[in-house]
Amino acid sequence: MKRELSRSVAPARAGCAFVAAVLWLVAGPSGAEEHAHWTYEGEHGPAHWGEEKGFETCKLGQRQTPIDIIAARKAQLAPIAFAYKPSPATVVDNGHTIQVKLPPGNHITVGDKVFELVQFHFHRPSEEKVKGKAFAMDAHLVHQAADGKLAVVGVLLQPGAASTLVGEVWKTIPRGHGESLPGAITVDPSKLLPTDRAYYTFTGSLTTPPCSEGVTWFVLKTPVEVSKKQVATFAKRYPHNARPVQPLGDRGISESE
Ligand SMILES: [Zn+2]
């Protein structure tokens, strides 16, 4: 029963820092042999994720994320059409990041494929690098299509003016690990986006265990500003929650013009 529940919950809410947390919470310690505890440092850190049963892809995968975006090929790519709107959201501290869960109603369309926004969350420093450079933070907007395929939009965050959206989310962070009241705030995810939506794209994975592959990544080229104080507020909870960059392998990176 517990396992069935795990399976039914995971796909609907799949996302970088969420699947393992859900499985852990649902399965509890009895499911630990399949879904082990993981961290960003020490004996359960990224170098060891792949040693745990169920997390083998973290070690064996050939198309892992994050990556350092060094050489991208310019191409005529379909624009990402964002259809985001103010939505009642739930703010979660899941022990790995601060995540904002959204009800259905926000989506992106790329070409003829529609992906529903499920949640977004943050990393410090940015997991993606561009030509060797990490940014102060990033936001990952995790989407899922009707066929189960995942697409993540990465937004690079750099110090500057405060972000209204980030400020509202930070105010709603639960005191400990856990969730705010459902719909505790109304957020418009479009406020997290730069005006220019040109992007890099490549195939990759979840950046957290179980590191599942087949994820389409869209990293927006233009960073968005957050204040130093907002970065510091996040850092009090999560000073470092970024997986190191992974080998590019035989993948290409495309860049919209
Ligand atoms: Zn992420």
Main traits of this protein?
5 helices; three-stranded mixed beta sheet; Carbonic Anhydrase II; alpha+beta; single chain; binds zinc ion; 257 residues
Walk me through the structure:
Helix 1 runs antiparallel to helix 2. The relative contact order is 0.22. The chain has helices spanning 2-12, 19-27, 57-60, 164-171, 228-237, and strands at residues 68-69, 73-75, 80-83, 87-93, 98-101, 107-110, 113-123, 129-130, 133-134, 137-145, 150-159, 178-179, 185-187, 199-205, 213-220, 224-226, 254-256. It has one domain (62-256): Alpha carbonic anhydrase (Carbonic Anhydrase II). The chain contains five helices and 17 strands. 16% of the residues lie in helices and 33% in strands. The protein is of the alpha+beta class and 257 residues long. It starts with a helix and ends with a strand. The structure holds zinc ion. Zinc ion binds next to strand 7.
For the record, the count of structural domains works out to 1
* Mass-distribution shape: globular
Through-space gap between termini: 50 Å
Q: H/E series, N to C?
A: HHHEEEEEEEEEEEHEEEEEHE
Q: Count every beta strand, where a strand is a DSSP E run of 2 or more residues.
A: 17
**Contiguous uncertain segments of 5+ residues:** 1-15, 17-34
Helix content: 10-25%
Summed over residues and divided by their number, the pLDDT gives a mean of 89
Could you give a short account of the major beta sheet? 14 strands, mixed
At CATH level 3, the topology is Carbonic Anhydrase II
CATH superfamily: Alpha carbonic anhydrase
CATH C-level class is: Alpha Beta
CATH architecture: Roll
Our estimate of the beta-strand percent is 25-35%
Helix segment tally: 5
Q: Compounds present? A: zinc ion
Going by helix content, strand content and strand pairing, the class is alpha+beta
